[in-house]
């Protein structure tokens, strides 16, 4: 692992994050592999993203810091469950790999992509964003600090320009 | 069909020897049942987040592995988050017990039939997800046998589906400010409010 995923991983370790819940995304693959291999960090695969919102609320009730990894389509699955975070003021951090905004081949990704930020903010959570690899470390640090020191709920949107668009044609040729 | 059990008596008997366990109740009548059995700082009542009770329980169970975590929820609430059973089985927490109070209907919204009235078997689903100890309970003898096992971690995740009747006892309304519920449970673990 190198580059921006490594920077996120280093930030998680710096902030003593103990639970990492995820629904797989290609952009998060290196981070997910690293989480499964990291001692002291529990990697928790979910069947759907709203499970992770409830999980992290429970983790915080028990004194453990957690974060979630998902892609933008999964934000829509979380909407009502975000009430738990908002009503109980749970420190919350998610890293969302954006689809449907930069070089996207699959048009079905675009509606949720367009709605991602406004849906999160409509539920009272904050969004931060990184499109340049140089921004990832400071944005991750700000999100974790504002959550676990400031008590905020923060969702970091990792732009598709940063994460990279999936190349459907390359796969079709294989 | 055998007589179904009365929900308040089920919860009261289950928690009669609860010790230091933490109880999370799912949205709806389960929250009133838990309040009726006796309020304490180690009760966390969900007033929303339908489908999330079992996962709140998992997060707690992983964070506090020496504490028994008990989720008490209804069939409708559990049905909304079935995937959680697969997620819980994969994590295999030694200290999480889920009790589903199954009246096969949505009591809060007019008694519409739930999927457990239409063929879904929550214990079989849990077993199919990998929760080996997932059983139906239909008698107070079984409730009284389960009760003393809730105080401390049982060793494996468990799920019990309790056949309850459709009576709706008067609501017992506990605290519903989430920040208060959060702060008092964290305080019970010796943690600051935030």
Offer a concise description of the structure.
Chain A is of the alpha/beta class and 174 residues long. Chain A has helices at 3-14, 29-37, 49-61, 72-75, 82-88, 110-122, 133-148, 160-163, 168-173; strands spanning 19-22, 42-45, 66-71, 92-97, 126-130, 153-158.
Mean pLDDT of chain B: 97
Run of helices and strands of chain B = HEHEHEHHEEEHEHEH
CATH class of chain A: Alpha Beta
Low-pLDDT runs of chain A: none
Q: Are there runs of chain B of 5+ residues with pLDDT below 50, and where?
A: none
Helix content of chain B: 25-40%
Q: For the record, what is the CATH homologous superfamily label of chain B?
A: Thiamin diphosphate (ThDP)-binding fold, Pyr/PP domains
Largest sheet, spatial ordering of strands of chain A: 2-1-3-4-6-5
Strand residues, percent of chain A: 15-25%
Tell me the span between the first and last alpha carbons of chain B.
49 Å
Largest interface: A-B, 34 and 38 residues
CATH architecture of chain B: 3-Layer(aba) Sandwich
